[in-house]
């Protein structure tokens, strides 16, 4: 079984160093503020990278990984590095009644942000696995949205009349908008080639504080328009031509690894409609979340 997404993450030096700094700082804070030894849960452990970083920093660690092959790999990596790591081959939401942890590590952030079960995993962890005041790495995330004009993305999302004719596809099928979806791609190349034209400034659409249980039910946070220089991404300057139509929503997210810890931010993107933009950082994985 191959896990190409994990290979990409394991070779993402900036991402891994940001995690390592934040986890080491979190363990240090816990040790300095409590008489008990730091105890961490790693949710969606993948090959065990984040849990082993916490173990190397001095925490006792329980790692949850739902994919059997990855759980075995995490155990092997821990043994090869002579680091203590308890690996449980199960989804973290199946666990309850355990010792509560003072630290949670996880990598449940896919390009679309919520596709790996981030919210239910966080909600369960805060109710069943974590003690009050526990630290989370990452600690918060913000999703940004920007409408763009892009004939390339619109053509990629729609069947042309010529293609429909050759394939014998009924006109009604070609006109169907389809279900919700996003294209995962790096937007920087399209921006350089002027294939993406922003129609407004970026908006901060959603903030998720991972240091507390996420709210249940449908949430309607008010979007927050931001100065483009403050958004950390986006497709450049807004044109003066108001005749351009919106073909896609360019979306990306920015993540804070640990509040008060410098150099701990990472970014990635998602998208919907006709296309998606992706920042230069971040990662995604398999299983429950696949943390490396």
TrEMBL record:
Region feature Disordered, mapped onto this chain: 208-241, 258-292
Keywords from the UniProt entry: S-adenosyl-L-methionine
Keyword S-adenosyl-L-methionine: yes
Keyword S-adenosyl-L-methionine: yes
SUPFAM superfamilies membership: S-adenosyl-L-methionine-dependent methyltransferases
UniProt-listed InterPro entries: Arg_MeTrfase, SAM-dependent_MTases_sf
GO MF terms, alphabetically ordered: histone methyltransferase activity; protein-arginine N-methyltransferase activity
Gly residues composition-biased segments: 260-274, 282-292
PANTHER family named in the record: PROTEIN ARGININE N-METHYLTRANSFERASE, PROTEIN ARGININE N-METHYLTRANSFERASE 7
Protein's name according to its UniProt entry: Uncharacterized protein
